[in-house]
Amino acid sequence: MNYEHSGSAMEKINHGLSIIGSASRLNIGNPNDVFSYMSQVTNDFGNDDDAQVKNMAGNMTKAYTQISEEKIKFNEDCKKELELLTDIKKKITSIDKERENVKLYAYDLECSLQKEDREESERYKDLYNKSVSSALSKMNDFLGENGVQGILRRMYEYNLEFFKNSYKIMDELK
């Protein structure tokens, strides 16, 4: 490896730093993540005459390429979950409406009971019970495994899988 001023090592380092600098402005959907950039940087070092540097750079290039592939899968999985979260957020209006109905039917039921109107009381009791059941069902769906809780759990699992796989890939370089 050449260490003199403006030598090949300095050129590779400067090239790598410019790539890493631009990589810090990445977004989630960008297929050219920091790991693919690092793969390019280490690949550049693989063109060196020193056999040890060339070997290590080749191994790191492969590792960063694999991690980049893992990152693309991670991004795709997370993007799907974020889209589901957006869809679920739209259900909030319906849930709020049902909760408001529960309050209204409870009030109407109370008024009919005070009037001692048995027929009206039965009707409002039925409406109240149906509304409570619907509101609880919608809230459980929103928060449960098919809702926010499931999305957060899956996002956690995607993170865990990505970082475990990345660690394993890098650990194999030892």
Notable features of this structure?
rod-shaped, Substrate Binding Domain Of Dnak, Chain:A, Domain 2, single chain, disordered N terminus, 0% strand, 174 residues, mainly alpha
Mind explaining what this structure looks like?
The protein has 174 residues and is mostly helical. The chain has a single domain, classed as Arfaptin homology (AH) domain/BAR domain (Substrate Binding Domain Of Dnak, Chain:A, Domain 2, Up-down Bundle), CATH 1.20.1270. It is built from six helices and no strands. Helix 1 runs antiparallel to helix 2, helix 3 packs antiparallel against helix 6 and helix 4 (92-115) runs antiparallel to helix 5 (118-143). It starts with 7 loop residues before the first helix and ends with a helix. Mean pLDDT is 83; it is low at 1-7. This is Spore wall protein 12. It comes from Vairimorpha apis BRL 01.
The backbone outline, from C-alpha atoms, is: rod-shaped
Structural class: mainly alpha
Number of helices: 6
What are the secondary-structure elements, in order, as H or E? HHHHHH
Q: Helicity range of the residues?
A: over 70%
Given as residue ranges, the uncertain stretches (5+ residues, pLDDT < 50) are: 1-7
Q: Which superfamily, in CATH terms, is the homologous superfamily? A: Arfaptin homology (AH) domain/BAR domain
Distance between the termini: 22 Å
The CATH class label is Mainly Alpha
Please tell me how large the radius of gyration is: 29 Å
CATH architectural name: Up-down Bundle
